[in-house]
Queue: 2 jobs
Job 1
Amino acid sequence: METTTTTTTAGRILAPIALGLLGLAVWQILVGVVGVSGYLLPTPMAIFSEAQQFSDSIVEAGLITGWNSLVGLVAGSLLGVVFAALAASLKPVHDMVNPFVAALAVIPIVALAPILNTMFGTTEFPRQAIAGLASFVPVFVSTLRGLRQTNPEHRDLMRSYAASGVQVFRTITLPTAVPYVFTGVRIASSLAVISALVAEYFGGPRGGLGGIISTAAASSQYPRAWAYVLASIVLGLLFYLTTLALERLANRSRAAAAG
Amino acid sequence: MSTPHTTSPAREQSPPAGDSAPAVAAAHIEKIFPTSGGEVHALSDISLSVRPGEFVSLIGPSGCGKSTLMRLIADLDQPSSGELQVFGKDARQARRDQDYGIAFQKAGLLPWRTVSDNIGLPLQLHGVSSAQRKARVQGLLEMVSLEDFGDHHPDQLSGGMQQRVAIARSLAEKPRLLLMDEPFGALDEMTRERMQTELLRICTETGASVVFVTHSIPEAVYLSDRVVVMSPRPGRISEVVDMELEDPAARGDDLREDASYFRMITAVREALHGGAPSGRGVETR
């Protein structure tokens, strides 16, 4: 029984790794042996050696972009939770806020980058603001949904205890919503990184991953651009996996919440 | 409907205030739910009195309003007309005074709280100090034989254990009235019988009145002093059957094989089927 489980888990992890390695091998052969232009598409080996050579500045750039994403994610999530709580408890707030969130959800937020860059000049603030706006929407939507999931038995029970509104909110509404908040944060984490990164393409200080990718690509240093793209993928994964772990943690003792 | 052990639904309707007041006194209750497809007449002319310490079951087919009646007593819904008093006060006041404990078909435990914190929930909400709460919860855990599970979370318990936690929670504030809506409905037969015996023991210990909603005839007979038989569309009381059995405190598994028990089951079944032909020629006493 236990060995079966271990084998399955190992298989689940090994299978995609094997596929990835196979893909890299095919890539390497296509460019290195078959003769696709190495100038347009560098080989994986070239990209890795570039990444190694510039590892210090890659980490530095990753920290800048990562910090912008993190500030945006945290600020956007906090705002999302606060507004969702207000919208869930006060009907007028819900009616006021909802159309704006719907509008925010359909606006390509990165489109604001050039404007914000002009407004705030040479600071990192525009990137953080964009990451924050992008994070706000999924956290707000998911939290609001979570705040409406209270179980009818729990509501009846709280009424039978003659509990006050604040007690009901603290005792059942909020704890029921917590896993939904973290689901929102997980979805927001990828958006925050993408937004902070892409916002760097549109001017402002050049230190982050996005800035260097666009500079390197503009000066035809493709292996270097690819090396920074690789770093962006790692950064995105880091955010995703961290928030996924948080979500799992929040869900651990709540598996029976629906029952 | 004139077998010796049945009484007419409208009985003893003068609830005086004070300690001698009946646990529940309902007079001519009507409940109408407005729906998109017109009005649904859920309860019609319900009159019922439950004495302090009495165990009364409400039984009837789905849609007869037995759960609705219990929700009215709990002030989770309000009657459309009629008078409803709990210990001589109106139902709303009784709810505010925490005069009753309640348990539903689903245990309704808060999954993010431990068993102890679930049982202590009503005490916590009503500002009982944590030391007192701890002592009370410990006593309740012993009462439902879950001493070793106080620190567990509900999802680590079986259905029967969860239901016992819910019953312990309903007893936390030593209510004089217990309202139970099919609390054993989701349990397997063996667990169910054990829980019934435990419930009788707990009721004897606490002296609480119980209004117990069920659709199981044997369950109603085994537990009750009186069984209120209801019929649907609109929900009304068709008969009240007195259980002529030994005192609830003395009931045990032996009773389930006793002739008197089967006689009562027959009596309730006949009342449920509204005096079907099979009931006519049979001498039930």
Job 2
Amino acid sequence: MKVGVFICHCGKNIASSIDIEKLKKGISQNPRVNYVEDYMFLCSEPGQDLVLDRIKAEKLDSVVIANCSPTLHERTFRDVASRAGINPYMVEIANIREQCSWPHQNQIEECTRKAADIINYTVEKVARDEPLSPITTRVIKKALVVGGGIAGIQCALDIADAGYEVYLVERDQSIGGRMMQLSETFPTLDCPQCIETPKMSDVSLHPNIHLYNYSEVESIDGFVGDFKVKIKRKAKYIDYDKCNGCGACEEKCPVKVPSEFYEGLGSRKAVYRMFPQAVPNKPVIDTKNCLYFRTGRCKLCEKACDLNAINFEDEDRYEDINVGAIVMATGYELKKELDELGYGRLKDVVSSLQFELLLSSIGPTDGEVKRPSDGKIPKSVAFIQCAGSRDPARGVSYCSKVCCMYTAKLAMLYRDEVKDGGAYVFYIDIRSAGKGYEEFVQRAMEENEVLYIRGKVSKVYQEGDKLVVMGADTLTGKTVKMAVDMVVLANAIVPRSGATDLAKKARIQTDKYGWFTEAHLKLRPLETNTKGIFIAGMCQFPKDITDTVSQASGAASKVLDIFSHDELYQEPLIAGVDDDLCTGCGYCENVCAYNAIEIDPKKRARVNEVLCTGCGACAATCPSGAIQLRNFTRRQMISMIEAAEGL
Amino acid sequence: MKKVAYYPGCTIKETDIAVEESTKAFLKVLGYELEEIENWTCCGTVFGMTDDDLYHQLAPIRNLIRCQKISNEMLTLCDMCYNTFRRADLFMKDPESMEKINLFMDEEEDYRGVEVYHILDFLRDVVGYKKIGDKVVEKLDLKAMPYYGCMLLRPKEVAIDEQENPRVMQDILSLLGVESVDLGLTDECCGSYHVLEDPSIVRRKSQEITKNAKENSADCLVLTCPLCRYNLAKFGDFPVYYLEDLIAHSFGVIKLEMGGGET
């Protein structure tokens, strides 16, 4: 066994805290080490070439790269090893940057000694590594997209256009999502309906897309290339094969309930489509409110339907589908707990989405701005930004990112609509980074004469038929008290309800707020930590439509990347069982978070190679040492500890 | 008749003894009797805001120690006293403060912890709305703005109800037949002790509150705090009632002179 060690300077990141020459000399004393070399940037092309050359020239069997964290460049040097003709799993990373030079700056002597320890024990490990080969799995070339907003739509269309089947699952009656609720889009003032409805209809007509509206993901099993998903197709009570979407049932339905699509500002029937341009354009019956389901009488919709499409006997159905990749695009909702601003108590304090709908041509007032309490046209509107955002005490700590822009848009549209109306925006900062965004906000201020007041609002209360907004003007240092007809909140944006449950089913992570966690914020923003499951749109974090669509197309291309292979290769660094030692006690099966272990009828633990992530929980639990991680065996660990201790 | 340890406080005793009488009267109907704590002193009034300000904790803790001789629960009518006691008790949850104060006051027994009730959460959590509703003999035809002020709701740790959307006063008022006008300045500060150094602040704050009540077509303000009442009645030019008086009146145990909205 010939071991080579390569030490990276990482510019000055490592070299300024570690005496490289001394380190090199020390390492070359290690009898196991046959060759030592250093270089300024090993990860650069000349650096990689150097490693490749030396492996060949020195006929090395295994290599230790002393550089940064393995999450950054382990893969890089495994590839180099492959190119040099040795097994890629005979490469180990000794992390002398994050775990040595960075935390111990200005302590050159101690730091150099520690780096030598890290390298020496890694040499012990690599000397006992075994050559491994990747695990192969087949790829089912069909995708599941969860959520039918603009992210899900774009993603489904991209995958379907490339020639693969897509299941698009939407919880509500119609696809379209939040974008359909918007008045216009910033900064171009495109009508969202005009740009989104064609895409919605593309979805419904696309031969490769199976649109499952009014459906939810029940469970997700399996792994990348071969997920087994159970879809709950909720009973619609309408036979979609017979229904032609004429709307007669909706007209006859005597029940009126607040419409979710209108954010409670308008009503819908118990048999309903979310909005007239819904896709599919066929209704569902909401059994919670349907008179027949509540009292056993009515059935007026059945009488109204000439096509006998109403089916009160319909039941929830479950469908199993098999897909190779999944994209989550579950979107967002608005934070509602804003008592100090009167939201939910004062009728004329509305959310941004409600105000969008009041300006929207498909909204409850046909685009006329009327305030909810008395239907009067408000002559003064205060817009309150950061309502719950950037507020660690009562709301969320983060900036919801899109509010500065849509508030400018809403104020602008309001001023266009109500020429003699006053628009006042309370803001902390204006965050308008984006193409054409700053110009847009300036236009609202200058051309539309929207008055911007820098400061937070502490309270909104009713006085007669006016709302009084109390706040600070931090530029003049004075408190502001303003009586207005209506208040619009830029509510903090929070994850869609149920997103955390879905994350659990898919075994993907969420952060403390419930946003889906990407594999790496900078370099792998579309992937999750579960291979084959991707994220798009607001379910990851607030973002505007431009970013959402980009991310959706990006996620689609990640899916297509998987579909471009017939087989996938997985890391073989997983658990393995020594059958002679295994007693079948099942402890490993209990601790495995990935359901990757089963005890077979012969009382032997069996590891599902694809599900196993190599976390090591089983190896730590096993009382007999029968189950161990490949290339991370107990023997390796003990010899590493001994080397570190100088034994 | 259940006995309840009772801390009256200075303002109640000095300026508004009548509300104590009303409270005693309606609590008797509900089956409770107030037992005044012996040798009580001023609660300390304003909670010490400095972390190491042990000295300002002595007055409330001493009163709580005197209470614990007869009960580990204590009732007060005054919002300010309630706030001071609850925060002092909270302060003593820290073992270090507990030890220091107990050592300092070695003439008193050690403090063990007293649960402090304000009359509002006492009525809600101990008595229960149903029992109150059952004893109402005269429904009041009033539109009232419930006024919480600061001390019942701030800080969050001692708030008797949801901080930004309290309901307890409205709930009790509705039992008496009173319609609540609660979308306005129900939790605005009355100006408090500024009345001593700059009454113009209190005049402005109080008039802001009563104007708001009028604009929202309330007939009167209803509150529980004797300090707020002093300010609002003095400067507000608007009828202000104690909730306790309204309860006692609708129980038929006192006769309250209703000034109505025309004052």
